[in-house]
């Protein structure tokens, strides 16, 4: 007696379920990778910020040194001014003091600007660290939850595989190899239900001859898309 259409339907459903389980199992590691990449990117940004901070601090220190040396030079000029021997010398020194004082003001502004920049970078570093913490926590939680879920999924995968292997016997021996190749290529889409004389995979109508074959329980591959066709029984057997 040929297998009932519902046996094919159940095999088809098992193949569909297996695909779903395997997709979930494959998706998890990809999602974990995405999260790891997020941490790497954030860490890279932090490294760059820390480099910038080092550089900006060095620049700020340099400006402060310049400022101190400018202040010392002004003090020195003021001392010279007190001992100026002539009006001409007095004017020259006064001119130098004026120029140095203007330069000192510029240096002061620059030094403040660098200090502001250091503050801003430090704030960015704090934010970046907190982003890394968040991303790490997220990755850790996700990985843990996936690993827990994966255990169940792998068990389900094994059960389905056994069930599918067992029910392969409903596929006639002479086409079993062809069926197997289709499953390897298309997964659950190796099978297509036929209803109202149409292949549900490619939606092409079956020839009258094919319809007769299918109705009489013969094995049939769709003449258009090559899928293994089956018909669901009108009455579910008890
Ligand atoms: Zn088809």
UniProtKB/TrEMBL annotation:
This is Zinc ribbon domain protein. Keywords: Coiled coil. Residues 32-138 form a coiled coil. It comes from Thalassoglobus polymorphus.
């Amino acid at each position: 007696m040929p297998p009932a259409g519902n046996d094919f339907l159940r095999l088809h459903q098992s193949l569909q379920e297996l695909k779903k389980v395997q997709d979930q199992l494959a998706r998890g590691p990809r999602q974990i990778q995405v999260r790891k990449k997020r941490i790497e990117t954030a860490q890279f940004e932090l490294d760059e910020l820390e480099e910038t901070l080092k550089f900006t601090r060095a620049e700020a220190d340099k400006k402060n040194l310049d400022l101190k040396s400018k202040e010392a030079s002004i003090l020195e000029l003021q001392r010279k001014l007190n001992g100026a021997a002539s009006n001409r010398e007095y004017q020259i020194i006064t001119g130098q003091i004026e120029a140095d004082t203007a330069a000192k003001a510029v240096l002061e502004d620059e030094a403040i600007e660098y200090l502001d920049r250091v503050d801003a970078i430090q704030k960015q570093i704090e934010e970046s660290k907190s982003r890394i913490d968040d991303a790490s926590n997220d990755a850790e939680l996700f990985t843990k939850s996936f690993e827990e879920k994966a255990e169940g999924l792998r068990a389900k995968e094994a059960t389905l595989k056994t069930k599918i292997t067992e029910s392969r016997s409903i596929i006639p021996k002479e086409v079993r190899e062809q069926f197997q190749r289709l499953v390897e290529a298309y997964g659950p889409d190796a099978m297509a239900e036929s209803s109202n004389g149409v292949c549900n995979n490619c939606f092409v109508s079956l020839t009258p001859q094919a319809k007769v074959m299918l109705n009489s329980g013969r094995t049939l591959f769709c003449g258009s898309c090559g899928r293994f066709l089956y018909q669901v029984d009108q009455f579910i057997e008890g």
